[in-house]
Amino acid sequence: MIKIYNTETKRKEEFVPIEEGKVRMYVCGPTVYNFIHIGNARPMIVFDTVRRYFEYKGYDVNFVSNFTDVDDKIIKKAIEEGVSADEISQRYIAECKKDMAGMNIKPATTHPLATQEIDGMIEMISDLIEKGYAYPVNGTVYFRTRKFDSYGKLSHKNLDDLRAGNRTLLVSGEDEKEDPLDFVLWKPKKEGEPAWVSPWGEGRPGWHIECSVMSKKYLGEQIDIHGGGEDLVFPHHENEIAQSEACCGKVFTRYWMHNAFLNIDNKKMSKSLGNFFTVREISEKYDLQILRFFMLQAHYRSPLNFSAELMEASKNSLDRIVTAAENLKHFIGNSAEKEMTAEETASLEEVKAFVQKFEEAMDDDFNTADAISAVFELVKYANTHASADNAKSYLETLRKTLTDLCDILGVIVEKEEELLDADIENLIAERQAARKAKDFARADEIRNELLEKGIILKDTREGVQWKRA
Ligand code: AMP
Ligand code: ZN
Asked: By C-alpha distance, which of 302, 251, 275, 247 is closest to 131?
């Protein structure tokens, strides 16, 4: 049983999916106006690990994460560089995907782009106006927060205090709003900005409506898990709830998960404070696997401080796991295929306890810190209970257990070996022989096996040509 800490109820709750065996999950993605910083990487790593654990548990996970590709900051950057906003967002989406690959973050099932979903946003805003939850004023459309009774249920804020605190806003130019907490769904075009035609005039959507529309389109009106950094609880997620629930009349998200911040020198790391490192900068000094491992050594709801010393410590810790996996591989290469002894069979029973410990930690609100401790116990065990004298099958089970657990964490401990040219030629020859014998299944299997390793075959009149992708 997986338990999740739900920001809304402030307790750990048993995970019960809307649809059996399936998880519908939405994670707010980055605004793409620059390289992502390592703070932005934290939710990516955390929720990718959550996804991997669900998959390991046999769930079919529909994982949606957007790119916010229309925003003031993107427009500002475009003006600075004298290029289009589109060029900026396309460039940094591509760079972000490279960083994600380096951190071994799986691509989402869908990565929607806000600019590709404008029609859906206009539709939802129109619907909200029709239902009395939104109102247009001079080309701007606002959400009427007072009409949505449970506004504030996620962030547990005292709305009257907030309203009082925000009253000054009303005086300073936003006097078109009925209530200081009303937020923008659609804003009118300013000169030189990207804009779309709408019933309220040319303009662009507000940030909050994007996520409501994209999660509804790709996951349905109700989703299991919604994730993001803790700074998104208010107002972003509170507003998403208001929009989606006012529109659909159903509970929008069952479990709200929020990661704590990554700090630097014990101060919040952020672009506006200028105290940040990009993932790209870190990748010049360290393998990004180390960054991933560093992040997972803390529980996702605990603040995490970044420092060079902690990264060095993570590097050494990860090295211990990698070395253990490499040693096992070396022993396997030198071991004999023989029956497992009774002692070996008993040993593998003991190993199951580490797997159980790992699962218990992950079941408890994805406690990766304790899960990693279980991996180290396994490493210690493998270091003292394996040698080339063991049965091959025993060693293989040990190794697979270790690599499977690391795979759930998304930490790569064994690099895929590159195929040598000779191996490739041999496989191609085997494929030709299979084809000659009309064993097309085997021939296709070899082709796919090569493709997985990045080898592309081309059948030509002169024979088979191949190249590395
Ligand atoms: P943004 O591009 O600012 O919208 O941020 C994208 C994601 O990164 C959001 O989920 C933020 O909450 C998260 N985030 C931003 N800075 C940090 C940080 N220092 N630590 C952890 N998460 C962060
Ligand atoms: Zn969002």
From this structure: 247
Q: Is residue 273 part of a domain?
A: no
In terms of domains, do 239 and 183 share one?
A: yes
Query: Is 395 found in the same domain as 427?
Result: no
Q: How far is the CA of 44 from the centre of ligand 1 (A)?
A: 9
Residue ID of nearest Cα to ligand 1 atom 7: 40
Q: What is the mean pLDDT of residues 228-233?
A: 97
Q: Is 183 left (phi over 0), alpha (psi -120 to 50) or beta?
A: beta
96: CB partners within 8 A, 6+ apart: 30, 32, 35, 36, 67
Report pLDDT for 174.
59
Would 272 be classed as within a structural domain?
no
C-alpha 64 to ligand 2 mean position (Å): 11
Its domain, for residue 339, covers 279-408
Query: 353 and 231 in one domain?
Result: no
**Percent of the residues in the chain that have a pLDDT greater than 70, as a whole number:** 98
Atom in ligand 1 nearest the alpha carbon of residue 304: 20
One domain, residues 318 and 440: no
| Per-residue pLDDT tens over the stretch 311-356 | 999 999 999 999 999 999 999 999 999 999 999 999 999 999 999 9
Q: Is the dihedral of CA 447, 450, 452, 457 positive or negative?
A: negative
Which residues have CB atoms below 5 A from the ion given as ligand 2?
28, 211
Characterize the bridge pairing of strands 223-229 and 22-27.
Answer: parallel
Say how many Å lie between the CA of residue 401 and the centre of ligand 2.
36
For atom 8 of ligand 1, the residue with the nearest CA is 40
Domain identity same for 286 and 233: no
Which one of the ligands is nearest to 232 CA? 1
Kindly report the pTM of this predicted structure: 0.89
Which protein residues are within 6 Å of ligand 1, measured from CB?
A: 28, 30-31, 39-40, 42-43, 228-229, 231-232, 259, 261-262, 268-270
Place of tokens 């060029």: 87
Q: Decide if 163 is inside a domain.
A: yes
Q: What is the CATH number of the domain that holds 249?
A: 3.40.50.620
Number of domains in the chain: 3
Q: How far is the CA of 229 from the centre of ligand 2 (A)?
A: 10
Query: pLDDT digits over 9-67, tens only?
Result: 999 999 999 999 999 999 999 999 999 999 999 999 999 999 999 999 999 999 999 99
Residue at which a domain ends, from 202, 227, 259: 259
Q: Is 228 left (phi over 0), alpha (psi -120 to 50) or beta?
A: left
| The pLDDT of residue 293 is above 90 | yes
| Whole-number pLDDT of residue 168 | 60
